[in-house]
Structure to design on (274 residues):
């Protein structure tokens, strides 16, 4: 169940677009919103007078208050329960700490998504949040607008520890009553087990959702294979499990070295273990 969503914002266009997405998602899930702004820690010259520094801080706080007031014009008509919070510190650390302390079920944040999901995860604040968080993160690419999900794809290497994350994902699919495709791109490691007898399939009876499809693609480059499937099947949400480190390495580290493009025109949901 998703009842609390944290929306980090720096008041930029991508962040505001992500907030619009999160508002409609929250309505679908009947969830409350916590809007969070982090004033980043800055190095302060010890020679600066205390009065000057205090004026600097006040200017930051006044600007934050102004921006929150602007956001409230949108939020007050949403019909949702929401609250606004401002913190000082390092962006990723504060977001993760806030989400954990407030028992959030999901973090929704935007990204410019310059050239691919690899950069989303390894070249931005979203990257740091994904690396540090114990709360699922949904990354919304720039200019993405909310739409009802019609197909979800969960890319996996069929690791047993992913099963709890899979159960959480089923809840997502149930809300939209849409197909959930468990997608596996075959690799050399498959020779060590029979993919047809993998953990997910053996425990399919533990998943009370009938619209799950197990899809296996022939061995090949992971990124292009997933890209093609996303395009062909008109996928609305791509999902991965953060704790599957081998798959993350396979998916991103190699793709970065080859500068391979990855989809940024659909949201990316990163689940966590537990």
């Amino acid at each position: 169940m998703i009842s609390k969503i944290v929306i980090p914002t720096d008041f930029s266009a991508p962040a505001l677009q992500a907030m619009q997405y999160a508002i409609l998602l929250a309505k679908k899930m009947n969830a409350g919103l916590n809007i969070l702004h982090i004033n980043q820690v800055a190095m302060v010259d010890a020679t600066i007078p205390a009065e000057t520094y205090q004026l600097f801080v006040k200017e930051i706080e006044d600007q934050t208050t102004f921006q929150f007031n602007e956001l409230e014009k949108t939020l007050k008509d949403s019909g949702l329960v929401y609250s606004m919070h401002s913190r000082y510190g390092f962006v990723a650390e504060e977001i993760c700490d806030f989400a954990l302390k407030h028992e959030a079920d999901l973090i929704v944040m935007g990204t410019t998504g310059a050239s691919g999901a690899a950069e989303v995860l390894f070249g931005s604040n979203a990257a740091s949040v994904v690396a540090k968080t114990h709360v699922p993160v949904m990354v919304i690419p720039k200019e993405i607008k909310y739409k009802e999900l019609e197909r979800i794809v969960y890319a996996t290497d069929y690791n047993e520890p992913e099963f709890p994350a899979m159960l959480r994902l089923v809840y997502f699919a149930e809300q939209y009553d849409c197909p959930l495709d468990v997608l596996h791109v075959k690799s050399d490691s498959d020779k060590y087990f029979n993919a047809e007898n993998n953990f997910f399939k053996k425990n399919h009876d533990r998943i009370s959702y009938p619209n799950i499809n197990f899809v296996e693609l022939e061995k090949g480059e992971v990124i292009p294979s997933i890209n093609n499937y996303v395009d062909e099947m008109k996928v609305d949400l791509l999902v991965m499990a953060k704790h599957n480190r081998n798959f993350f390495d396979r998916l991103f580290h190699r793709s970065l070295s080859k500068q391979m493009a990855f989809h940024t025109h659909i949201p990316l949901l990163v689940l966590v273990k537990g």
Observations:
- The first strand starts at residue 4 and ends at 8.
- Residues 6 and 34 are 5 Å apart (CA to CA).
